[in-house]
Amino acid sequence: MSKPPAAPPELPGHPHIAYRAGDLMVEAVPVSHLARQFGTPLYVYSRAAIEQAAQDYLAAAQGKPVSLRYAVKANSSLAILQLL
User: Within this chain, do residues 70 and 40 fall inside the same structural domain, yes or no?
Assistant: First the structure.
């Protein structure tokens, strides 16, 4: 029986999420550690990814007659609302 292919070290399109030594990492923090600390199920967000996406949206809208707003219905996490 052949082994399944190894997971890529970094997930394409998600530079802040990667596998290291078999552990899923979010911003260099092992998700297994977070699960032990906070329990499961657990939602884990990358602050760096959220900030980069917000900067990308703002840069794309620069000089255009648009107003960007966060849709609270998409995610009402207080920590994310404070970040944005």
Answer: no
At 16-65, the pLDDT tens digits run: 888 888 899 999 999 999 999 999 999 999 999 889 988 999 999 999 99
| Total number of domains in the chain | 2
Contact 24, 16 (CB under 8 A): no
Same domain, 34 and 71: no
Q: What's the 3-state SS for the chain?
A: CCCCCCCCCEECCEEEEEEECCEEEECCEEHHHHHHHHCCCCCCCCHHHHHHHHHHHHHHHCCCCCCCCCCCCCCCCHHHHHHC
- Do 39 and 73 lie in one domain? The reply is no
Full domain range(s) for residue 14: 1-44
Alpha carbon distance 12, 27 (integer Å): 15
